[in-house]
């Protein structure tokens, strides 16, 4: 699916010029971001103590064709610096308006995990340099399937309900690093309501979750060896650790306020995979800001905690001699495997946005990020976000 950006543009323009029925529109957005760690031998969001433009810079085109009678097609072509600016299709889907208030979409779609999921890559759409990463931490943001969106009113409130169903086959970062994963029978509901200066939303999603770390290098190979050690004599306990067609869930609540130039955003989310080694993740952020004409200043506080339930170790013996030359410690091994997935982290960010152009914004951002088991790291970034 990957191709050069030039070829993708030619394809898009060719479609626009040859279609007699479709009214085709091309929009785009870009972010040019430079960042550097203020401390040596630290890293965050792909940055190091050497100035870099790659981790968060991107360029994208969105091609939309109105085929008439409620049918349309949309594709988003993305080129990311972190991938050496190779180009791929981020979105590709068909839409059909069932009625004036209801639309069905099918194809490769954005998962509505978060308040800003639909604008996740459009830096111009939000005030921050980046969405708060303790909450916006899932490495995948799209799925293959269908969604239905209904927009209506509830008294003086505007209401939007979105239901999705589909699957995902790629990588997730629910264990020690990114691992191959399959999420099947993914389904969920996202409900957003707004009135004047207040917007609130709730989301709940479930999926049949499988994560493989059998053939990965450390640290996942260590996890696999530990599970095998427990499973050799206690298969039930080992089964409680592996992630194979387990019930995964995502829950989120959020709200935003834009009142007399005062800005507040907050989201709370949880991620859980039942009966597995995956720690339950709980995270939140609160952002406050104030708009001064073309300037917006903001501060964000964030927290994330990964916790694991110790369901089986009490049933395991502390010491188990398997032979004259081999003694294993099932209880300690099990507890160590659970503890390896536990983590706590905090972040604090201050920044400013300057709308120096009707279609572009300059952002300066300083983030202090503290991972309890690793230590604190600090990032300074400067970027320009634009839409066209």
Major beta sheet, strand line-up: 1-2-3-4-5-6-7-8-9-10-11-12-13-16-17-18
Q: What is the mean pLDDT?
A: 88
Sheet with the most strands, sense and barrel status? 16 strands, antiparallel, barrel
Helix content: 10-25%
Radius of gyration: 23 Å
Q: Sketch the topology as an H/E string, one letter per element.
A: HEEEEEEEEEHHEEEEEEHEEE
Strands, total number: 18
Q: Number of helical segments?
A: 4
Briefly note the structural class of the backbone. mainly beta
In percent, how much strand structure appears in the residues?
A: over 45%
Overall outline: globular
* Unreliably modeled segments: 1-20, 215-219
How far do the termini sit from each other?
25 Å
Fold and architecture overview:
With 388 residues, this protein is mainly beta. The protein is 11% helix and 55% strand. The chain has four helices and 18 strands. The chain has helices spanning 5-18, 220-231, 235-239, 330-339; strands spanning 23-37, 58-68, 71-80, 87-97, 102-110, 142-154, 157-172, 179-195, 198-211, 243-259, 262-273, 280-292, 295-307, 320-321, 327-328, 343-357, 360-371, 375-387. The strands form two sheets. A 16-stranded antiparallel beta barrel has the order 1-2-3-4-5-6-7-8-9-10-11-12-13-16-17-18. A hairpin with a 6-residue loop joins β11 (262-273) and β12 (280-292). α2 (220-231) packs antiparallel against α4. The radius of gyration is 23 Å and the shape is globular. The two termini are 25 Å apart. Residues 1-20 and 215-219 have low confidence and may be disordered.
